[in-house]
Amino acid sequence: MGEDEELVRVEGLKKYFPVERGFVERLLTRRRRFVRAVDGVTFGIRRGEVLSLVGETGSGKSTTGKLILRLIDPTEGRIYFDGEDITDLRGEELRRLRRRMQIIYQDPYASLNPRMRVGDAIAHPLEIHGMADREERREAVLEMLERVGLVPAEEFYDRFPAQLSGGQRQRVAIARAVITRPEFIVADEPVSSIDVSLRASILELMMDLKEEFGLSYLFITHDLAVAKYISSRIAVMYLGKVVEVGPVEEVFRNPAHPYTRALLAAVPVPDPARGLAPVELKGEIPSAIDIPPGCRFHPRCPEASDVCGEREPEMVEVGPDHFVACHLYS
Ligand SMILES: Nc1ncnc2c1ncn2[C@@H]1O[C@H](COP(=O)(O)OP(=O)(O)OP(=O)(O)O)[C@@H](O)[C@H]1O
Ligand code: SF4
Ligand SMILES: [Mg+2]
Q1: Which residues pair with 319 in a beta bridge?
Q2: Cα angle 9-261-265, degrees, rounded to a multiple of 5
Q3: In this structure, how many other beta carbons lie within 10 angstroms of the beta carbon of residue 85?
Q4: Whose CA is nearest to atom 6 of ligand 2?
Q5: Domains along the chain?
Q6: Which of 243, 229, 267, 214 is nearest to 52 (CA)?
Q7: Which listed ligand is nearest to 239 at the C-alpha?
Q8: pLDDT tens sequence across 223-262
Q9: Pocket of ligand 1 contains residue 37 by CB under 6 Å
Q10: Residue nearest to atom 2 of ligand 1 (CA)
């Protein structure tokens, strides 16, 4: 299992969703088809780190996050949390685990009950986990409201989500996520739906809370500039697989996988990959139902050779703590 400082580890993780079939299709064939949303992923998240997970839409980032939190069940593979295999936890054991790991979604408006007062929404996880009585809960929530910058706390406690701005709502979602003092948070595009001018302050809040509460994050984002700002390591996902993972500085300076180079070339990032020929990303991401054989990136890869269509590349180490799955390096 390796590094004992790892808080989370996934090994060979897969999630296949069965494709709904029409009536005629059911008559014609017994064959079931699957969306291979996550298709064999292995990585760790170290205690106290922010690991960013980046990749185009549909690459399996959110599904990976939900699998780790055990919000959905894997098709294959194992999930470890704090050294314990949590893949098959059920019932009370799973419930107890839940307060140690939380999620922050992209759209706080969708994740907050519009009829629930802000204070009650933040108190809710404490109530579910039986962590405090009514009076203690109120105290804890007021303290937390203040901590996330929603002051005067008494006033915010009684408001409804519709009475808040997008940034304020995300602060509520963050407060609700940390109120049980979790060790690990999956943040799934937490600033993507927030006005650009407010993003930095939300990211700063998340970093402050990380230090204060000793949190570790899996930070899912489309935005490479955000990933660079917030994370210590970055994992690049393509069509259900992690194709490159390494320290964020190193991956930005020496992106090894052609897909990573294409992503970096496509986005205006401060300090882009210098000295490397930009890779143009051609075409759309293929359907996760019909994944290309061999290296799944080969139909779009300008550097593909014969072997790429035949054999799937293994992860190899190309620098300190920097791994890539590409035949150019094996
Ligand atoms: N419940 C589901 N049933 C069927 N297919 C699903 C389900 N959830 C996700 N998928 C499919 O799995 C693939 C991966 O989806 P996922 O949401 O994990 O991607 P993502 O990287 O988070 O994308 P985005 O950046 O758009 O959020 C997609 O093809 C998606 O359509
Ligand atoms: S294995 Fe081949 S197709 Fe895949 S990224 Fe590397 S060079 Fe491109
Ligand atoms: Mg997603």
Answers
A1: 322
A2: 125
A3: 12
A4: 326
A5: 6-100+182-329 (3.40.50.300)
A6: 229
A7: 1
A8: 999 999 999 999 999 999 999 999 999 999 999 999 999 9
A9: yes
A10: 17
